[in-house]
Amino acid sequence: MRMAMHVFRYRLRCLLRDTDTLFWTMAFPILLATMFYVGFGNLMGGDASFEPVKVAVVNSPAYQRNVYLKQMLAVLSTPGADQLLDLTVTDETEAQRLLDEGGVTGIITVGDVDDTADPIASSIRLTVTQSGLGQSILKAILDDYLHASATVSSVLSQNPAAIAELIDRLGNRESYTQQISYSDAMPDTAVGYFYALVAMACLYTGFWGMRNTIDLQADLSDQGARRSVAPTHKLAVVLCDWAAAFLIGFGEVLVLLAYLAFGLKIDFGDQVGYVLLTCLAGCIAGVSFGTLLGTLFRKSEGAKVAALVGATNVLSFLAGLMYVNMKHIVARNVPVLSYINPVALTSDAFYSLYVFDNHHRFFLNIGLLCVISAVMCFASYLQLRREKYASL
Amino acid sequence: MQVFKAYFRVMRASAGMISIYLGVFVGMAVLVTLTSSQSPATEFNETRTRAAVINRDGDAPLAQGLADYIGDTFTVVPYEDDPEKLQDALFYRDVEYVAIIPQGFSATFMAAGSGRPGDTGHAGDLGQADSDSQASGLRQVQVAGSVDSPGRTEASDQTAVIQKVIVPASTSSHYVDIRIDEFLNTVSIHRDLGMAGEAGETAEDRQARLVAAVRADLAAEVPVSLRLAGGRSGTSKESDSKYASYFAYQSYALVAMVMMGISSIMIAFNKRDLRLRNLCTPVPQRGFDLAIAAGHAVFALGCWAIMVLFGLILNGTGPFSSGRGWLYLANSLVLTAVAAAIGFAVGHFVKTSSGQSGAVNVISLGMSFLCGVFVPQAIMRQSVLAVAKFFPVYWYIRANDAIAALANSVSGSPYPIYGFMLVQLGFAVAILSVTLLFSKERRLAEL
User: Fold this and answer.
1) Separation of alpha carbons B123 and B126, rounded Å
2) Which of A236, A246, B42, B305 has the highest local Cβ count within 10 Å?
3) Which residue of A has its CA nearest to B194?
4) How far apart are CA A44 and CA B104, in angstroms?
5) How many domains is chain B partitioned into structurally?
6) Contact assessment for residue A334 and residue A341, using Cβ atoms and an 8 Å cutoff
């Protein structure tokens, strides 16, 4: 046991002196988090709240005569919670100028009433400079007006006496939608990036695991050769190395987590214990992953590192680090991939803590992470055991 | 010439790393171009917000009619009635609106109109009811229900509403609300005022008839005219916005590639032993430095040309007809010079290859995030932008945005753009001179 403590302690010191790996596993994720934070800017904290659509109406005699349209637009632009429009009534040249400069989203023009047409309907036009949501809202409002006149003529043809009632009903529109929500969490997509980032940092602990395998295999480093002839039991050495790598990696992830939660105020929910459990499982998977890659690729150190960098980048990409929706796209189209990807599992564990009220999916993620880690550890054990070298 | 040749022999060693940046960027750019719809902005297209419709009311014609209407007006993504899946979809914005038609919605909604027994929808009856309560639709039912038939109170309590799960206060949810409310309001008007129930007609038939009448009412559309900026034809805005975003994104890859290549060379030639040996050669120092500088220039220009070429292949030559294309090219050429200067500095101050890749990644990624390459500057915080002004990429993006804005304005002047380019050149000159100063000092110290 004393021997094990000795190996563990020296492994810790050895790893901590590897400044390159320290930079990539700790400083780099923190830098990346800072960049995400400054880069996302106002995207953080959910989508911007609804702003009334700015619209200009050309003030023509025809518009002034159209009482119903005037009334409708006035109702929609009344300040308050339900305000949809920000109305400017002006002349044609001014309206054009506003549209060109982006001061308004569209221009409503009311032409002269056609004698044959319905009294309410008239040639209303909408002029915009591009397609978009604001423009579509304007069109929906004007369509609504046009449809109302269709309703009027169709109802009056069946029930001419209803005119007064009809006008009243058209003026008092009911809202038929009621907002419900599944949970209290704000669906703030930006936090997804930070969850993926912590998940990536967890997998980056694999660099420590890989470092261990290089220092352990006699054909890869002098240190490995020396340690191979030492009388300590190999399994004890492997376990001590593993523990040291895990301890450092977990510590780094905790620093990152503290920076995110307290420095950048990213919302991880209030279930601290579960968040830490996720980091723990993620780091275990990370170290196991690095160990496995380190034992699988028997080539040079450069090839091992390249394999690890490539693998972590691809897995992080699939988990939504570069494009947050990727995680959802993968989960919807190739669900298997998201069940075996440790980065996706870790970030999904954070996500389910944040979004869902129950822990069903959370424990599914953690369970899968543990299973994957166990499989990877066992595979590297098979690779590492009973190694013999013909010559060194 | 010998030195020049040696330059590219050294470059070959770091060609792998450089082509990774290039490959990843080109892959992404192709993907983005392929997925973004190529619709030319010659006509107005309504936004078809992505929505999920959960119809718990089964085959009832009214519920079905509403679901069909939503399907015709928006892009409905098929989802099953599973809160977890729907929450996922909403969080990742696969849908922006989940509309849930509750069970019994159609029956409750229809009952709302027939508060009175034997109601046939005559205006007189309802008019009276209306003047009693001074309200319409839902509240009327509750009054009528509780007075006339207590048994119906329960049904009225679960009033006929569509439940929605949305991103709170999002603009798109307002948009969908307008359409759904319009549909149901029109149904209620027809139900109460227009369409009398016929003898022997089943509830389903009546609902189907109502839906048909409403769909007929909602068929008309307001004409929308799309006015291209300045009345200019041929140059549609769409192609310029693609240009602008391509040239914004390419700055990251360009800076990373140029920095990587030039710093690799400088690290190699700055190795102490190698440099001391080179100093003993009969090649004059000036000629040696010039050859290296020429190598840098050829390499940087090559990177720039590759990026420009890909841009042209992917996005066409639209903005060149009005000269804006040349502005994009000039701007990115200026940035190339800045990147070369930074690479030169990195190659001077960093000695190991791991330090180099750290510096290249941190500088290129950091500047990109800070200066608005990935996220438009318009939505970044002012405090962040204030810091970003001290980095050249900020001015590159400013110029890039200004060129794109030129396409939309009638009387835009290109002069501010030249100013932004000059600022970038200033950065390049400053970085280069500081590095040369240090390098002279080091040379003197070594001898």
Assistant:
1) 5
2) A246
3) A155
4) 40
5) 2
6) no
Q: Which residue, B67, B158, B64, B70, is CA-closest to B111?
A: B158
Amino acid B94: pLDDT: 86
Assess whether B180 and B308 both reside in one domain.
no
Q: Provide, as residue numbers in chain A, all residues whose Cβ is less than 8 Å from the Cβ of B180.
A: 176-177
**Residue B81: DSSP 8-state:** S
Q: What is the DSSP letter of A252?
A: H
User: CB contact, 8 Å: A364 with chain B?
Assistant: no
Over the range B335-364, which residues count as b (16 or more CB within 10 Å of their CB) and which as e? Answer: bbbbbbbbbbbbbbbbeebebbbbbbbbbb
Contacts of B333 (CB under 8 A, 6+ apart): B304
Residues B372 and B271 in one domain: yes
Mutation for testing the B interface, residue in A127, A136, A166, A357 having most B CBs under 10 Å: A136
B133 pLDDT more than 90: no
Q: Contact B177/A177, CB-based, under 8 Å?
A: yes
Residue B230: inside a domain: no
Q: B75 and chain A: CB distance < 8 Å anywhere? A: no
pLDDT of A113: 57
Q: How far is CA A340 from the centre of its chain?
A: 19
B302, B388 in Cβ contact below 8 A? no
Characterize the bridge pairing of strands B97-101 and B50-55: parallel
Q: Among all residues of chain B, which has the CA nearest to that of A24? A: B358
Which tokens go with A330?
């993968």
Minimal-distance CA residue of chain B relative to A47: B170
* A71 near B CB under 8 A: no
Does B211 share its domain with B310?
A: no
The verdict on A306 touching B (C-beta cutoff 8 Å) is no
| Residue span of the structural domain in which B270 resides | 2-39+236-446
Report the first-to-last Cα separation within chain A, whole angstroms.
30
Residue boundaries of the structural domains of chain A:
2-44+189-384, 53-171
Q: Answer yes or no: is B44 within a domain.
A: no
Which B residues 311-350 touch A at CB under 8 Å?
none
For A32, residues 6+ apart whose C-beta sits below 8 A from its C-beta are A197, B365
Q: Looking at the DSSP assignment, which residues form a beta bridge with residue B54?
A: B100
CA gap B190, B41 in Å, rounded: 38
Q: Please indicate, yes or no, if residue B223 is contained in any of the structural domains.
A: no
Nearest CB among A41, A136, A177 relative to B381 is that of A41
8 Å CB contact of B375 and A40: yes
SS3 for A193? helix
Residue B199 placed within a domain:
yes
Cβ proximity of B77 and B94 under 8 Å:
yes
Walking along chain A (392 residues) 10 residues at a time, the average pLDDT comes out as 86 91 91 85 60 87 82 85 85 84 84 55 78 87 86 83 80 83 74 92 94 87 85 87 95 95 87 94 96 84 81 88 83 88 94 86 94 94 79 67
Kindly tell me the sign of the dihedral angle through the C-alpha atoms of B229, B232, B234, B239. negative
Alpha-carbon distance of B295 to B258, in angstroms, equals 12
pLDDT at B410: 59
Instruction: Kindly report each contact of residues B136-140 with a partner whose C-beta sits within 8 Å and lies 24 or more positions away, as own/partner.
Output: B136/A168, B136/A169, B136/A172, B136/A174, B136/B188, B137/A174, B137/B112, B137/B185, B137/B188, B138/A174, B138/B112, B140/B112, B140/B115
User: A133 contacts in B (CB within 8 Å)?
Assistant: 47, 49, 171-172, 175
How many angstroms separate the CA atoms of A205 and A322, rounded?
20
Q: Please choose, from the candidates B446, B435, B255, B284, the residue with its C-alpha nearest in 3D space to the C-alpha of residue B363.
A: B255
Q: Same domain, yes or no, for B368 and B245?
A: yes
Q: Does the domain formed by A53-171 have CATH 1.20.120?
A: no
